[in-house]
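Good morning C.,

I know you're traveling, so I'll keep this short. The sequence:
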Amino acid sequence: MRHNPAYADIGISGDPTPSEADIRVTRDLMRAGQLLKIEVLDHIIVGRSEPDRPQPFASLRELGYLA
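The tokens, ready to paste straight into the viewer:
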């Protein structure tokens, strides 16, 4: 049986830039996933797009936190 779970974090401030807490949660999820044999594919933080930040989300995988 295959499941497709997902986790997305909503940036309360609207800024999708990962905080230290977001990074800690990601590392904790990865450790828990290893124990349970569940692969953590990504941690996405959703926010708003701005002129200086056109992408309204951040992928911690793309930022190198899920290496």
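Safe travels,
E.
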